[in-house]
Amino acid sequence: MPVFDMMETYMVMKLKFTPSFGLRLISRTTYVALTMLIGISIPFFGSLLGFLGGFAFAPTSFFLPCIIWLKLKKPRTFSLSWIINWACIIIGVLLMIVSPIGAMRNIILSAKHYKFFS
């Protein structure tokens, strides 16, 4: 994983750690434990992921590949593949708009009941 590689490279080059299995085990375990602690401590983490995922997941999964394919292949207008790609683009844009709105609504409605580490 790029994050682990960057972290281990920094530890070896700048902090002068010896590259070893122990370094990998300790650094990766610490990283996973810290991210898990952050995820547990934020009570609306699931809704926050839905909010941010709406911006990141929809473009990279639905409409950007379709736009790139349409630019590269240049299918005939109103052919079956052209229509399917445009349908995916429209659905992806709608998901990118609706998903963050729904997640933000969930965060706002549940904000009264949130307690950290719950």
Give an overview of the whole structure:
This protein has helices at 2-13, 21-41, 45-73, 80-110. It is mostly helical. It has 4 helices and no strands. 79% of the residues lie in helices and 0% in strands. α3 (45-73) packs antiparallel against α4 (80-110). It folds into 2 domains: 2-41, no CATH class; 45-113. The two termini are 30 Å apart.
Average per-residue pLDDT, rounded, comes to: 91
Helix content class: over 70%
Low-pLDDT ranges: none
Largest sheet: none
Computed CA radius of gyration, to the nearest angstrom: 21 Å
Shape call: flat
User: What amount of the residues lies in strands?
Assistant: under 5%
Succession of helices and strands: HHHH
Number of domains: 2
Summed up, the helix count is 4
